[in-house]
Amino acid sequence: MVWTRRRTVLLLLLALTVLSPLALYTSRLSAALNPIQTRDFPGEITNQGRGVKADKLNALPLETVSSLKEPVGVVFSEELGGLAKESTGSEGQELPSRKAGEHKSRVLSEVTAAADGTEVIEQVTRQEAQDGGLASAVSDEQEKTTGSQQQSSSEESLQETVPKQTSAKVVMDNSQAARTDGKAKSSVLPDTRIRNIKDQLIKAKVYLGLGSIRANSQYLKDLRQRIREVQKVLGDASKDTDLPKNANEKVKALEQMLIKGKQMQDDCSIVVKKLRAMLHSAEEQLHAHKKQTVFLTQLAAKTLPKGLHCLPLRLANEYFSLDPGQQQFPNQHKLSNPKLYHYALFSDNILATAVVVNSTVLNAKYPSDHVFHIITDRLNYAPMRMWFLSNPPGKATIEVQHIGEFTWLNDSYSPVLKQLGSQSMIDYYFGTNHANPDSNLKYRNPKYLSILNHLRFYLPEIYPKLDKIVFLDDDIVVKKDLTGLWSINMKGKVNGAVETCGEGFHRFDRYLNFSNPVIAKNFDPHACGWAFGMNVFDLAEWKKQNITQIYHSWQKLNQDRSLWKLGTLPPGLITFWNKTFPLSRSWHVLGLGYNPHVNSRDIERAASIHYNGNMKPWLEIGLPKFRSYWSKYLNYDQHFLRECNINP
């Protein structure tokens, strides 16, 4: 009886010992597999190895709290169809501390090698179709080695352990950001070897000037030899990769010489004085180079290229071979019709004038309604006429005149013409009198001696039958139809222009001498300037307000150039003071002759673009990025251009 009871107790204890772990395992396993019961990762699942492998049910390899390791990250490559992975990080790497609130979602993959084969544990994220996401996949090797029950369990586990709101795009962004941070931390200044070599050369040159070094003739000879060797190695290299293989050897030899020199020279104050002298000398050289650069730029702007010198000669020769009847332009009856669209263009540059006319006509809605009044000097009169006779601008009307035709424009009528012919003005421009040289070379350009530059102030006298006219500089390119300028209500103003006060140097105090009481009394130094180049003039209002007389009175006051320097913009600002109507900036975009950073969107929206500055598009110093806007309106296959070797 007693034996039977003992056996029953033992059997119960044995059953309890066997069944209780099974019940506990089954309960936790069902909780891990049921997506409705939990949305979190399972806390602890022991590796029992029965039915479903526990390591395939976990997104992260199980670690103890005390030794939390960083999981292996996966970066998906689009080149392999979204299925290729690159493992970053390792299982034994400690998890770095992260900032609060930082996103910690990532795609994980662990690859472990076993004695009986390779087991691959993967987690693949699903991305929404509209994001062009990655399709989840399980490798063929895993499908072959697992049963149907294990496969279904594994798929459920993968879907459960990856939060649905986390997309592959966010994960990839985080991994890229992490890699970028790593690069930033380890980034080094580029071309450090080049910088170091140059520093060593400067130091060596300082040593050459020290008394204690020069006293040692043998050391001085060796140091110079090392400097020459390093300079030869350095050459024209601008990057570390340009240096030859023996560069390190030569630099180390120089460094050894400098160490010996440092031991020979104990007085640091002498070295400091020498460095200061070298710095002062370098500053003087820099200042001289800047002045030379300005001078050469101005010289290049004034110089006529060989092709542009050849062109008028060829055209003039061709013009004088024509019969008198062939030298006339058609449609001359349109020249005085105020109902048409008239343009004034004063230039001695044939190619530049051709581009202005061609660009205006090609972008006009009704080319036959446009009339171009071109005035040039006597020297370029025949070539200019020949160009437009041989290259007529479509249905537009052309008139070419020269200054000599305006007999009323003489020094008794025009103060500026009298000033331009004076000996003092010629001496100033051509530099025969150097007593008070002007520091700003741009005001010493001899082009200002030409009356062509000042004809814009005599428009009503030149075209007495017209009511409104658009003035165009020869460095303008028209990109849109300009007929809208004639319909603008200028509200009694004479001059329609685009203001240029976006920057400080385009205000009145930049152009006028406000230390003179006459200027200070009549004008505001902070008033907004405007630009010549593309202006619409109401000639009827001009006559009514007697603008030409105002211009003459101010020119007489400025005989000694005490009110402003030279040029046409300062007297223009004065003459049209309170008589200028501001146009929309899109009508006229400036700066293509000096500013390489002109906004491309502004250029595309502009009705006209202006190459104001020294870097004209027909010169070699022109900005290459803007030259195509100009050259597209020239036919370089034209035989005159080919004969003079003028190319885009």
TrEMBL record:
Single GO molecular function: glycosyltransferase activity
What kind of membrane protein is this, topologically?
Answer: Single-pass type II membrane protein
Region listing for Disordered, in residue ranges: 85-106, 128-187
Q: Where is the composition biased (Basic and acidic residues)?
A: 96-106
- EC number of the protein: 2.4.1.-
Q: What superkingdom heads the lineage? A: Eukaryota
UniProt keyword Cell wall biogenesis/degradation, yes or no: yes
Q: Which GO terms describe its biological process?
A: cell wall organization
Compartment list: Golgi apparatus membrane
Q: Which GO terms describe its cellular component?
A: Golgi membrane
Q: Where does the record place Polar residues bias?
A: 162-178
What spans are recorded as compositionally biased (Low complexity)? 145-161
Q: Where is this chain primarily localised? A: Golgi
Keyword annotations of the record: Cell wall biogenesis/degradation, Glycosyltransferase, Golgi apparatus, Transferase
Q: Is the keyword Cell wall biogenesis/degradation in the record?
A: yes
Which pathway does it operate in?
Glycan metabolism; pectin biosynthesis
Instruction: Identify the Gene3D superfamilies for this entry.
Output: Spore Coat Polysaccharide Biosynthesis Protein SpsA, Chain A
Q: Give the UniProt family note.
A: Belongs to the glycosyltransferase 8 family.
Q: Which PANTHER family match?
A: GALACTURONOSYLTRANSFERASE 4-RELATED (PTHR32116:SF7)
Protein name listed in UniProt: Hexosyltransferase
